């Protein structure tokens, strides 16, 4: 089978498509013929050797990136419960150590899968699990977004952000989004109530007294976001590299700030699939690549100017 691998950390040119054996599922594991694999910031940060996931795999090469995917059950090991050959599924590989979604076939544990939503192509569902679960857990599990709250979402047109906008609107939250001008119409169509051009406007000069901030950027943006929250407000910051600094600053000011490392939850993913099937949430895929184009895909992803998700099609 074809699989993307790296043998060292580095720029996109360390990504290679190689021929390797199709893995066999062990006890409690499922082999999936991959229809689509989503590309996320954790993928290129890990490839560059940055962040906690990179520390976990350091020296464990060759390694195949990619954590979210969709496809059809190809084979099952012992004790896999509900899954049958031919089932359309989406889910994740064991995060953060295993990776392997950038591949024609991927093995994962039985509990890391859910039935794919039936209203969209199976391949497109591969762009959903990690990003949508990150948004869900930020808003509803780690955070506690309430109905009709006022929320600021940074990088709102990106993978996590565009899901977060739509999930927040299921609670009739008032959503303020930051994005570049070419993404304003896109976000308004998703339901955002206001969109701020971060190039021309400092968001902290026009936002105040908010209930919630979802920080998908980190660093200085996360620190400045403390200024826009009310005394009872809360922030969830997603980038791990700057999370501790932002959390510490929040503690000094009496503001609840929490970092987030996504984890798989089948019930949450099934609820997200239901929202997709009712069209309350619409995954947006801006560009599709083949495995052979993975270097170009990572180059584009690292610009941070994408809209929605990028998808690899084996």
UniProtKB/TrEMBL annotation:
Gene Ontology terms for molecular function: oxidoreductase activity
Pfam families: ADH_N (PF08240), ADH_zinc_N_2 (PF13602)
SMART domains: PKS_ER
InterPro entries per record: ADH-like_N, ER, GroES-like_sf, NAD(P)-bd_dom_sf, YIM1/Zinc_Alcohol_DH_Fams
Residue span(s) of domain Enoyl reductase (ER): 10-312
Protein name, entry field: Alcohol dehydrogenase
Source organism of the structure: Oleiphilus messinensis
Taxon lineage: Bacteria, Pseudomonadati, Pseudomonadota, Gammaproteobacteria, Oceanospirillales
